[in-house]
Every structure is written in C-alpha cells, then in structure tokens.
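Run log, item B.
One chain of 70 residues. Sequence copied directly from the ordering sheet:
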Amino acid sequence: MANTVIIDEIVCKGCGLCVPVCPKKILFIDRSRINGRGYNPSAVSDMSSCLACAMCATICPDSAIRVERK
C-alpha cells in the first residue's frame, strides 16, 4: 500500500503554499477544477511518489490536507 495525501477540496482555497514545500513536487493547483467556494483546489499528480513527510499538511493554513502513512 502507498502513502496517501487527502485534500479536503471543500476547505482548500488553493493558496498554493503546499506546492513548493513538497520534496517530490507532486502537488499542484488544479486549474481544471473549481470547488464549491470558487477556488481551484490543490491536487496530487503521483500518489505513489509520496514520502508521507506531511510538509504539505503542516504548512496548510486551513488544515485541508491530511497525510496517511502506510
């Protein structure tokens, strides 16, 4: 089983703080999606590359990201 990054798209405001802190560069702002609050949420491009370092969850000001280590 792989590590998992769970992004609460309802809460995410697409601030992008999580994107540059990811050591594997697998987070991005998904410009093709808009959440219910009118923001483009963060997304993961390659979940299998996740190290589960939780830097993204730590920096998220809205606690919209959770990391599960497997």
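Observations after the first pass:
- The mean pLDDT is 96.
- The two ends are 6 Å apart (CA to CA).
Flagged for discussion on Thursday.
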